[in-house]
Design brief:
heterodimer; A: about 300 residues; TIM Barrel; eight-stranded parallel barrel; about 40% helix; globular; B: about 220 residues; alpha/beta; Rossmann fold; three-stranded antiparallel β-sheet; 8 helices; binds iron/sulfur cluster
Chain lengths: ~300, ~220
């Protein structure tokens, strides 16, 4: 099977492996030790890790710089580039720079609005949106062109391009159409918003399959392992774009050992998702609970990970 | 219209604290329509300022005049007779344009009494909402007459983002998601296929990003 890039993630997907990615949030300081530790602990258990880009608009070490430490530690990073903080010049420049450092995967997203973060009075950029960004990365790779149309004469960056999709946002019918738009723009893989409402997710997947979209991109299901019913309740109430059914909140509330229950739930979800046609892997977002990933992967029967 | 809102009263008091006699200039244009800078508001503000200064034992003298518009040199001429030697400063209730037109014309210290907010319209008595981001190249024909630049918090051209739920924007549960509105309208008109096209990046040079803008119309110029 031929691949378009040197990405390990792409190669594994092309081979038909059920992939697992994780997420590492860079620190609010300039020290790399924590990221390196996470990368070393996780590298045997996941195939790649997203390195978030000033997630929830809180200033942190840059995604690309943190990803460099991850890469050096032997784990494949997926850099994130949001449209909130950079215009089309900054985005293309970062794409060139990150590629020169060995990055091979990029996730394009619009980014949380700055009003959620620790600099709510900042100006936002949004010069281009996430769909335009995906197309930009694809055109740099496949047409060897900058956004302005100028040719990239040599060493064009060849990224495996990711986008996000939220099956739980509205309007539901248009969510699938917009996913198709992202695929048409060039998304090679799609990570979904964290799934708690499996019923709605399956309904969405059915619509995805009806349009044949699962054959045109790699859909990777997003999961967040829950530590407590409070965490579940918080996401249910305060995080836009999430749907957390009450039964999940109750299940954790009733549990004697909520953390264990959270792991159990996540493992069940993985096993279930593995059976759904068109799901190519899972993306586990255990931010601030990264150390739980090995347990989840082992319990889900997905250890050891394949090598290239 | 341009919608403006008075600065907090105490801020205005502070801005004129050194003055003994001020000229308060209202505007009969947009700010009169949005009830913030017309003749009536000039009168109300002037008497409030005088009263407050009197209480402080530092009386203030005011001269009041409202021009049909402050954004027109022709009407600015009408102000000449009022800008006398003994006027310490001019307080304008025009939008930011009016304040600047006064400053360009007269060598007097000019102070804005308003915060100029946006281009919008009246929703109900006492409620105004933003509608246009003055982007310089209108694309409302692509989005069913609803502006994604100003009604989407991220100005997305290929929305809605993943934060849109129950018709509301992720930024505020009381704010309509501009893209939900666009979707509903396009659906109603059977034009959803237009939303499937990837809208290319916008030419922001036509907007404020290209530097201060100017419109020149040869056909109406009097040379
Ligand atoms: S598209 Fe531009 S000109 Fe048209 S309403 Fe929106 S901001 Fe105003
Ligand atoms: S929720 Fe709607 S209005 Fe708000 S940023 Fe997203 S697309 Fe724009």
């Amino acid at each position: 099977m031929t691949t378009k890039t040197e990405s390990k993630l792409e190669k594994l997907l092309a081979r038909g492996e059920f992939v697992i990615s994780g997420e590492i949030g860079p620190p609010k300081h300039a020290g790399p030790e924590g990221i390196v530790k996470h990368a070393e602990n996780l590298k045997k258990y996941i195939d790649a890790a997203n390195i978030t880009d000033n997630q929830t608009a809180i200033v942190r070490m840059s995604s690309i710089a943190a990803a460099f430490h991850v890469l050096r530690s032997g784990l494949e990073p997926v850099i994130q580039i949001t449209c909130r903080d950079r215009n089309r010049i900054g985005i293309q420049s970062d794409l060139l720079g990150a590629y020169s450092l060995g990055m091979r995967n990029v996730l394009c997203l619009s980014g949380d609005h700055q009003s959620f973060g620790n600099h709510p009075t900042a100006k936002n950029v949004y010069d281009i949106d996430s769909i335009q960004e995906i197309k930009l990365v694809k055109d740099m790779r496949d047409s060897r062109k900058f956004l302005c149309g100028e040719e990239i004469k040599q060493n064009e960056p060849r990224y495996f391009i990711g986008g996000v999709a939220n099956p739980f946002a509205d309007p539901l019918e248009f969510r699938v159409a917009r996913l198709e738009k992202k695929i048409n723009a060039g998304a090679d893989f799609i990570q979904t918003q964290a799934i708690f409402d499996m019923g709605r997710f399956e309904k969405w997947m059915e619509m995805v399959r009806k349009r044949g979209l699962h054959e045109r991109t790699n859909i990777i299901a997003g999961l967040i392992p829950l530590k407590s019913h409070k965490a579940a309740r918080y996401m249910q109430k305060f995080v836009s774009g999430m749907l957390v059914p009450d039964e999940i909140v109750y299940r954790l509330e009733k549990a004697k050992e909520p953390q264990k229950e959270g792991v159990e739930l996540c493992v069940e979800q993985i096993k279930h998702l593995k059976q759904i046609e068109g799901i190519k892997g899972v993306h586990i977002m255990a931010v601030a609970w990264e150390e739980i990933i090995p347990t989840i992967v082992e319990k889900a029967g997905l250890f050891p990970r394949p090598s290239l | 219209m341009i919608v403006a809102e008075n600065k907090p009263f105490h801020d205005i008091l502070g801005l004129i604290e050194d003055a003994k006699k001020i000229l308060i200039v209202g505007c009969g244009g947009c700010v009169a329509v949005c009830l913030s800078g017309g003749e009536k508001e000039v009168g109300v503000l002037a008497s409030a300022l005088r009263m407050s200064r009197k209480k402080e034992g530092n009386p203030l003298e005011t001269v009041e005049v409202t021009l049909p518009r402050q954004c027109d040199p022709e009407y600015m001429d009408m102000l000449k007779g009022y800008v006398k030697e003994d006027i310490d400063c001019i307080l304008s209730l025009g939008c930011g344009v009016g304040v600047q037109f006064i400053a360009e014309r007269f060598s007097k210290w000019v102070i804005p009494a308003q915060n100029t907010k946006f281009a919008g319209g009246t929703i109900a008595h006492g409620i105004w909402e933003e509608r246009c981001g003055l982007c310089g190249e209108c694309i409302l024909y692509k989005t069913g007459g609803i502006c994604p630049i100003i009604r989407c918090s991220k100005s997305l051209l290929n929305g809605p983002c993943g934060g849109s739920q129950n018709g509301k924007c992720e930024v505020d549960k009381n704010l309509d998601c501009g893209w939900q509105l666009i979707y509903d309208r396009m659906k109603k008109f059977g034009k959803l296929d237009l939303l499937l096209k990837i809208e290319p990046p916008k030419d922001w040079s036509k907007s404020r990003d290209g530097g201060p803008r100017k419109v020149v119309r040869e056909d109406v110029k009097i040379s």
